[in-house]
Amino acid sequence: MAIIETEAALHEAHRDNHTHRDVSGGWLRPAVFGAMDGLVSNLALITGVAGGAVAPQTVALTGLAGLAAGAFSMAAGEYTSVASQRELVQAELDVERRELRKHPEDEEAELAALYQARGVEPELAREVARQLSKDPEQALEIHVREELGIDPGDLPSPTVAAVSSFGSFSLGALLPVLPYLLGASSLWPAVLLALLGLFLCGAVVARVTARTWWFSGLRQLALGGAAAGVTYALGALFGTAIG
């Protein structure tokens, strides 16, 4: 009795704790990518312009223009990309749906063969395929999962991806230009704030990945700092040449 109770307790604990994060949703990737892209691209843009020894007002205007252009571009690109992906999946679903309607026996045999290839005994595989094929919609979902690796009921939303990308890019791109909007006349406050933002974004991303927070934060800081350094040098070079 004690053993049974112990096993039941372990099973209950496993069931309560064995949960997974949402890795297929349509918001995380565009949000993370948008924030990082906004920070790095606008920081690089501002440092490149500031390297040309222009007025602080010009740097601020450039940063705001970069924010607006980048946010709308990111949103449009994400919407188009995810919408195209959904349309492709829907087309493949239609193909599979027609096959199930025209050749149900062949599709059932194909499903049984998939299970046999995974080690299920032939008779059991055929019985499982027969039972699962009774419901056409269930059969469609299983075939799509097995053959395409797609969950037809959990496709990313183009609108969610676009809104996430737009908002996160705007927030990321705002950090480098914010000191100028608050009256700063030099580049360093913008650089320091942007690098701090990159480190914090990297650390936050580590919460949903297997990386440590300091590694992810330092990686983003190094990449953003390198981009800013290169564009500043180019801005100083071309600014001197043009001037």
Question: How is this structure best described in words?
Answer:
It is a single chain. It is elongated and about 75 Å long. Helix content is 81%, strand content 0%. The chain has nine helices and no strands. The chain has 243 residues and is mostly helical.
List the helices and strands and how they pair.
Blueprint: H1 2-17, H2 28-50, H3 56-102, H4 104-117, H5 122-132, H6 136-148, H7 158-181, H8 188-205, H9 213-242
Briefly say what this structure is.
The protein has 243 residues and is mainly alpha-helical. Helices cover 81% and strands 0% of the residues. The N and C termini lie far apart (88 Å).
Please give a handful of descriptors for the protein shown.
243 residues; mainly alpha; 81% helix; disordered N terminus
Report the strand count.
0
Shape: elongated
What gap, in angstroms, lies between the N and C termini?
A: 88 Å
Q: How many helical elements?
A: 9
Element order: H for helix, E for strand: HHHHHHHHH
Beta-strand level of the residues, as a percent range? under 5%
What is the helical fraction, as a range of percent? over 70%
The SS-based structural class is mainly alpha
Oligomer: single chain
Q: What is the makeup of the main sheet?
A: none
Rounded Rg: 26 Å
How would you state the average pLDDT, rounded? 84
Which regions contain 5 or more consecutive residues with pLDDT less than 50? 1-10
